[in-house]
Amino acid sequence: MTVTTYAKKTFFLLGLPLILLTLWWVASAGSTNPFWPSLQTILQAFPETWTMERLASDMVPSLARLGIGFSLAVVGGIVGGTAIGLSPTLRALSEPVLEFFRAVPPPVLVPIIALFAGYTGWLGKIVTIALGCLWPILLNTVEGVRGLEPTLTDTAKSYRLSWWRRLLFVVLPGSSPRIFTGARQALSIGVILMVISELFGANRGLGASIVQFQRSFAIPQMWTGIILLGLIGVLLAAIFKVVETRMLAWYMGQRQIERGE
Question: What is the spatial distance between Cα 238 and Cα 224, in angstroms, rounded to a whole number?
């Protein structure tokens, strides 16, 4: 990568965020509105608010619940989506149910799950995140399996590959681009549900802290929580991009060849 290319990538990566932060700084400078503090005030409150102790007690449990719920959704979505995608009968039977649950907004499930699993504790929050993340992964897996090139499956059959070898070396790799698309959508939903699930009776967690700051009129501290959530979202997206690039290197190389790059 040349210096010019590196500089161009850095500009496109950081250019718009820096412009937006500058506009925020200028627009909020000297603000006397208690609900709209200046960006300088918010940044000064950030290190005082999010100390190592608070990060350990609030951020780590939130991310742990997100990780567990998202992992359960990935496993359930891939297993269920592969089974449905491979079986026309199962697909025909489950399609109305899938369409129904796809139309239900995930945040609506939060109070219902809390009634059965409890408002406090980890179980209700993990179930909320897992159910919300499940559908994008499952539906994309179904479409990925259904969209496999017939040549691939016919070739695997002609080589007399066993069912397990066809699944591991043909079906799952061939549908992996759609699986990653669903996982990327699910990760965004998971972050949203992580916060929403902590608004209902939770004592610890990022969402609970933001609500507590708001109720105690600690407005700059509340804004720092929102900024921290945004930074976590950016970090998770970057980690996901790295994993996706490594796992789908063959697919991205194929796309570059098709585009003549």
Answer: 21
